[in-house]
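Researcher: Next sequence.
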Amino acid sequence: MTSVPFFRPEIDDGDIAAVVEVLRSGWLTTGPRAKEFEAAFARYVGAAHTVSVNSCTAALHLALAALGLKRGQAVLVPTLTFAATAEVITYFDARPVFVDVEPETLCMDPAAVESALGRASDVVGAIPMHYGGQMASMPCLARRLRAAGCFVVEDAAHALPAAVCDPDTGRWVRVGALADVACFSFYANKTITTGEGGMAATADPALAQTIRTLSLHGMSHDAWGRFRAGGSWDYAITAAGFKYNMTDLAAALGLRQLARADRFRSRRAAIALRYTAELDDLEEVETPREQADRRHAWHLYPIRLHLDRLTIDRDEFIRMLAARGIGTSVHWRPLHMQPYYADRYGYRAEEFPVAYREWQRLVSLPIFPGMSDADVERVIAAVRATAQQARKRRFAGTNEVRPAQARLRSRGGRHLRPGAEPVARRGRTGRPLQRTRADPLSPGARRAPGQAVRHPEVPHDEDQLGSGPPHHQRGRSTGHARRPRAASLEARRAAPARQCPAR
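Model: Next structure:
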């Protein structure tokens, strides 16, 4: 049987040649390729400063260290996230405070953040995580957190590239633009890969320097600076740091991958569109949606099962897909349900009802740039066949089992009653499945480091994101005093939203 893995990295001969060139250069660790990769990535995401490290976990850890997180303080984290988002908080003997997620995006819920800020007085920051590649409601979250004096670190492991529209200004905001530090991942299944790797991006030069120093034992000079021509062997240890630096081997691969990032993202989007078109009519499956005010990176394509319409649970659905040669995964069991956090903090499974409900029906399908059209069709066929095999066939309002032959299918898979005519395929909201929009992340929409987000259809406002970098004392952000205090969440929801620009 032909199988489709859950993911496969896209590595070409040019990638291999770039790594071999570094091997032959005689300099393998942090050096000129790492510096070049940092500069190229900063241009790509529009960041003023970037520091390459060996994982996104390292970037998150260093961000919290640079921001001054202290023992006994608390940081808000969505419960539906990877282990790293919360574990780095515990490195400081600080406390992760979990909050629930929005049912539509599975990202940190602003209403849950509002509630948590009202209950806990020791919260000094938050780490929103962009689930699957679709950004959290960063404009709303950032304003509320700044008003509470909190720092913001974006876990952007899934979100390269991504954007969200600010409903108050009608302007597009790119990933990382509203954070003190944004942390990216280059793990093997991400949009671009260095095998293992990560990047910290910030507008604050002081934060960037602290992160860089801490990433290599707290040393004042790295090996490249000491041993290249004209360098000095001497260095000063200015802090107790870590061994988190990225090698030139990894950076050489990252440079090659970054040059194809837009193409990789476009292919993922095309696969997502095809999945949605062919699976959206299944009564047993709910397909993911790109919100109208978001630009999705499509790192994941997580379907949600309607378990009440199936004779099996999620795990059996996965086993049946595996038997048909399709690799899948689940993202994730909520962290408050993991033994470490449940035992240490006394969380109950039902304490965060949205995350608890949704994770039980999540199945992530394969989505990676190297998938062929035939691979995509195999996944679609396997999902449809599994759903059909496990379907509860009942007439509406009765307990009578509905004969399978009474459910006729057109070529596109739409359910038809005898004599019914096919109709144009539309989404559950009645909108056509395919939309045409300008791309806020196109090369023409990119910004120079330190500039506010620009969009070709919207006049530019230099004060849109505030002026000057944030400054930090005792784990709290104090550099955003010029920002007006956010209105209450209820008032913001009641107010009419400004129209986001077409994309």
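Model: The longest strand covers residues 49-53. The mean pLDDT is 84.
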